[in-house]
């Protein structure tokens, strides 16, 4: 039987913008480099492509990304929100305590978030 994993909450884009600005939330772009090159990236986001995400997000991995802290809130986004949902579920299973799905980059931009 298919298990969907832990429930990941959505975060309102306006909340994410404010929390990234005051550095109380780490924002992660999990799109691949070609996608980022075409549409830009949310200001303040860390780029960790889904292809390397498992290795970079796992706190036990020697390749763990230093921006990812298990006890600091994290929000992920992709193009539509589907890949970020899966990645956020994986992070909860790895022991992260507060992980959100922002959705897609367009959600950030529509809410007034800067894209560079």
Note down, in words, how this protein is organized:
- The chain is an alpha/beta fold and 116 residues long.
- The chain has a single domain, classed as 3-Layer(aba) Sandwich (Oxidized Rhodanese, domain 1).
- It has helices spanning 13-21, 33-39, 50-57, 82-93, 105-110; strands at 9-10, 26-29, 46-47, 74-78, 99-104.
- Strands 1-5-4-2-3 form a five-stranded parallel beta sheet, with helices on both faces.
- Helix 2 (33-39) links the parallel strand 2 and strand 3.
- The mean pLDDT is 94.
Helix content: 25-40%
The shape, in one word, is globular
Secondary-structure class: alpha/beta
Q: For the report, how would you describe the main beta sheet?
A: 5 strands, parallel
> How many structural domains are formed by the residues?
1
CATH topology name, in short, is Oxidized Rhodanese, domain 1
List low-confidence stretches: none
CATH superfamily: Rhodanese-like domain
- Tell me the total number of β-strands: 5
Following the backbone from N to C, one meets helices and strands in this order, namely EHEHEHEHEH
Our measurement of the CA-to-CA distance between the termini, rounded to an integer number of angstroms, reads 42 Å
The overall average pLDDT, rounded, is 94
Provide the CATH top-level class: Alpha Beta
Instruction: Tell me the fraction of residues in β-strands, as a range.
Output: 15-25%
CATH architecture label name: 3-Layer(aba) Sandwich
Strand line-up across the major sheet? 1-5-4-2-3
């Amino acid at each position: 039987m298919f298990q969907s994993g832990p429930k990941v909450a959505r975060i309102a884009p306006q909340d994410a913008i404010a929390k990234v600005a005051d550095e109380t939330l780490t924002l992660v772009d999990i799109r691949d480099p070609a996608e980022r090159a075409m549409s830009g990236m949310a200001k303040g986001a860390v780029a960790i492509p889904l292809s390397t995400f498992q290795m970079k997000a796992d706190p036990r991995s020697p390749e763990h990304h230093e921006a990812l802290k298990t006890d600091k809130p994290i929000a992920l986004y992709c193009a539509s929100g589907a890949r970020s949902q899966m990645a956020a579920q994986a992070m909860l299973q790895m022991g992260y305590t507060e992980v959100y799905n922002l959705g897609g980059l367009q959600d950030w931009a529509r809410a007034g978030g800067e894209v560079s």
